[in-house]
Structure formats: C-alpha cells, structure tokens
Amino acid sequence: MIMTRFARPEDAAEIVRLRRAMFAAMDGHDSPGPWERDAEEAFLRQLSVAGPGLGAFVVDGDPGPGRPHLAACAVGRIEERLPAPGHALGRFGFVFNVCTDARYRGRGFARSTTEALLDWFADQGVTRVDLHATPDAEHLYRSLGFAEHSVPLSLDVSRRA
Questions:
Q1: For 72-113, what is each residue's pLDDT tens digit?
Q2: What are the Cα distances from residue 66, in Å, to 34, 69, 94?
Q3: Per its UniProt record, what InterPro entries does this chain match (predicted)?
C-alpha cells in the first residue's frame, strides 16, 4: 500500500528538487539557479496561508543512509474566480507539478499523489481541474478522466513591462 501524505513545510527543498527533475525530464536540460531558492520560499509561504490555496501530496522515499528524501509529489493550486453556472464557488484547480524520482518510477506513486490531490480539490469545492501533460504522462491523466477542454492560448507578458 502506498502511503501518501499532505506535504509539510520541511518538504519544501525536496519538492523543489523534484520540480527541477520534472523540468529536466520535460526539456532535456537541467536548469539549476536562483529560481530554486525562490520556489522553496514560495512553497513555504503558500503552504502557510490559511484556507484553500496550495495542495501538495507526497510519498516518502525509502529510509536509509543519508538525509530523508521524497519519492514523488503532486502539487496544485486553487484559483478562485467568480462563480458561474456549474461552478458555484468559482474554484478551479491547476496541477502544476507531478514528479517521481527516477529511483521510484513504475510503482504507482504519481497516480497515488495525483489522486490524493484530486480528492483534496474536490473537498475544497473545486469543480474543474486543469493541467499540462507531457506525452509520457498523458496516459496517466487520461486514465484519471482528464480530456481536452478547449484550445489553450497563452501570452508571455513579461516583455510588456
């Protein structure tokens, strides 16, 4: 049985380590940098805010020599919009980080942490959850019921400043 738990503040560095591994797997480039410190601080800040906001579920790595580590995580955020038909509270979820340490792949940890995150979203009154899937992970998300919703459009506004 997989033991999934809600992340704690002391998991911040490990969640960022897994986030870095996720980005490296997505584009083939390891990108260390100041963003890691900023991400750890943001995780700590967002996790400490009362009320629905950041949800993070983890599976601990095997005990052994060295410092404790995480085997996997799924992290998402609740965005509160205006209520609408079918979305009484206006709460939408976004999954932005699912990663399993390479040493633990194939054990169902990504599924377990993602299901825990989806249950948490449902408990918080979220009515729709979105995510971006890599080709390797698409089968997992489809098996959980995810499907195309609309054609996404995005714009990098950082150059407008």
A1: 999 999 999 999 999 999 999 999 999 999 999 999 999 999
A2: 25, 9, 33
A3: Acyl_CoA_acyltransferase, GNAT_dom
Q: What tokens does 11 get? A: 């998991």
The 3-state DSSP composition of the chain as helix, strand, coil percent (nearest 5) reads 40, 25, 40
- Exposed / middle / buried, residue 81 (Cβ in 10 Å: 0-12, 13-18, 19+): exposed
DSSP-assigned letters across all residues of 142-157: HHTT----S------G
What domains can you pick out in the chain, each with its CATH number?
4-149 (3.40.630.30)
Tell me 123's DSSP state: H
pTM: 0.92
Q: Are 30 and 136 contacting, i.e. CB atoms less than 8 angstroms apart?
A: no
